[in-house]
UniProtKB/TrEMBL annotation, chain B:
Its cofactor is [2Fe-2S] cluster. It comes from the Bacteria. Keywords: 2Fe-2S, Iron, Iron-sulfur, Metal-binding. The keyword Plastid does not apply. Residues 2-105 form the 2Fe-2S ferredoxin-type domain. This is (2Fe-2S)-binding protein. It comes from Planosporangium thailandense.
């Protein structure tokens, strides 16, 4: 279906979405980070003058450049690295939950009280950025999200344009600093790889930081919020998770299927192609709706039912598929698992307040609950 | 023709004719062999294509690269002596490979 409002061909069936992701030679990701709404003249001027030259770290790059950079960056994203972070992640989660539970009015918001900071601290630690600057990074990320996937007027774009300039300058500074101090961090590793002869430029390293400092937390905040929102809305399944924490990994997969943090992602046809029997001309933009593919009844039985024991939940497309498959998938799932484990242990009696009133941000790709209000018995 | 024999954790066996150039993961997925998820489609990012190679066949395979070795620390069922990620094993002309799929990939 062609959607005239955004100028995209919308792909919604499981097999079609997966096939487009898989065929990177026909369907390029070059438009994945393009502003959905064109930038206004003033925002463009601010960004040009501020030296803003970032576009994408990896997701909108294409082979052979993508292959070269991804190979170098992937080495910094191995399971052993994450596992080393697990104790710190767990300690953070426990501290946040205990703080919330001490509140005398017995009410909390799982987004603000738990999901918001945790992944940000993790990614800042991994990258070697300053963990006392969480709010600054969140402000920059919000601007990046709004400027790329939102629908802002020229006027509204101006403060965000200033934020993007600051954000990019900080990425450049991190790389420059790493050349001098060689820190034990992801930026440090990438700079060391470059110095050892790997083919990656400073601009590319800064672009990877620019990516990760956004991709590395927004979507995980959403995953943790959604996981608790959906599990608490299904008390019988929440009880199973509390009684048998081994079920948590499967529950996280089902949350990713049922309520993926990114509901749609973009591609561009490099040549004439056929998708689901429809002819798509070369140069056309495609919107792949993973949120819909994940509920395609020809792939998932009773797709509207949330069921943590669904055998094929893991075939969801929440992390994409193929050469751009999410590099941070294991880190995201590890954090969600630890968060659920500790909530189930420390606050098994948590209840949602007014679940139907939960609102989501307004945006083309990211479906994120604004608040998840909860309460508990004394 | 090359052949891959998959045995699941319960002992059920499937022998599949394979095409040279494909990976063992692709051979499994195309033929609907259960027990291999391959969530990332072979980009070495998910570790859900884990197999345990028959020790008798293990040495005949080209050795794995460092990144595959690293990713094997992320499998759902802990890696064994002859564990591999099947998206990284290429089918060659007269391959006759025997692998076991783990109890779970999640
Ligand atoms: C629930 C959490 C997350 C979701 C739902 C998610 C989803 C996605 C999706 C849909 C893509 C595009 C895939 C494609 O085009 O085929 C992607 C790519 C990517 N993600 Fe994630 N992501 C999450 C967490 C993370 C984390 C924690 C990190 C890093 C720490 C990360 C880093 C990346 C990178 C670097 C790419 C680009 C990879 C490439 O183009 O080669 N993501 N992610
Ligand atoms: S298919 Fe994902 S690592 Fe092999």
């Amino acid at each position: 279906m062609y959607d005239e409002r955004i100028g995209y061909w919308v792909v919604t069936r499981y097999d079609d979405v997966k096939a487009v992701f898989d065929d990177w030679e026909t369907f390029s990701s070059e438009n994945a980070q393009a502003p959905v709404r064109e930038r206004g003249a003033e925002a463009k001027r601010i960004m040009a003058e501020g030296g803003f030259t970032a576009y994408s770290g990896l997701s909108a790059r294409v082979p052979p450049e993508h292959t070269r950079i991804r190979k170098i960056v992937a080495r910094a994203f191995t399971p052993r690295r994450y596992k080393a972070l697990e104790p710190a992640i767990r300690a953070n989660v426990v501290r946040e939950i205990e703080t919330m539970l001490r509140r005398p009015d017995r009410t909390g918001d799982l987004v603000a009280d738990l999901a918001y900071e945790l992944p940000t601290v993790t990614i800042l630690t991994l990258i070697g950025a300053d963990t006392s600057q969480i709010d600054t990074y969140k402000r920059w990320s919000d601007s990046r999200g709004a400027m790329t996937w939102g629908d802002l007027s020229d006027e509204e774009q101006i403060p965000h344009a200033h934020n993007l300039v600051e954000y990019w300058q900080e990425c450049l500074r991190l790389v420059e600093e790493a050349h001098r101090t060689h820190p034990d961090s992801l930026v440090g590793d990438l700079v060391r790889a470059q110095e050892a002869g790997e083919e990656i430029t400073d601009h590319e390293i800064a672009s990877v930081c620019y990516s990760l400092l956004f991709a590395g937390h927004e979507t995980t905040t959403t995953l943790i919020s959604n996981a608790l929102r959906v599990l608490l809305a299904h008390p019988e399944q929440w009880r199973q998770v509390v009684e048998d924490p081994k079920k948590i990994s499967a529950a996280v997969e089902e949350v990713l299927r049922y309520s993926p943090s990114i509901v749609a992602w973009r591609r561009r046809a490099k040549r004439d192609a056929v998708v689901g029997g429809v002819e798509i001309p070369a140069g056309a933009n495609l919107l792949l709706v993973m949120g819909s593919a994940n509920r395609d009844e020809s792939h998932f039985e009773a797709p509207e039912v949330f069921d943590i024991s669904r055998p094929n939940a893991r075939e969801h497309l929440a992390f994409g598929y193929g050469i751009h498959y999410c590099l941070g998938n294991m880190l995201a799932k590890l954090q969600a698992k630890v968060a659920i484990e500790e909530v189930a242990r420390l606050a098994p009696g948590l209840r949602l307040v007014d679940a139907d009133a939960i609102e989501f941000g307004h945006n083309l790709s990211f479906r994120a609950p604004v608040r998840v209000p909860v309460t508990w018995e004394a | 023709m090359p052949k891959v024999t998959f045995t699941d954790h319960a002992g059920e066996t499937r022998a599949i004719d394979a095409n040279p150039g494909d990976s063992v993961m692709e051979t499994a997925v195309r033929n609907g062999v259960p027990g291999i998820v391959a969530e990332c489609g072979g980009s070495l990012s998910c570790a859900t294509c884990h197999v345990i190679v028959d020790p008798a066949d293990f040495a005949s395979l080209p050795p794995m690269e460092e990144m595959e070795d690293e990713m094997l620390y992320g499998t759902a069922v802990e890696r064994r002596e002859t564990s591999r990620l099947s998206c990284q094993i290429r089918i060659t002309e007269d391959l006759d490979l025997h692998v076991t799929t783990p109890e779970t990939q999640v």
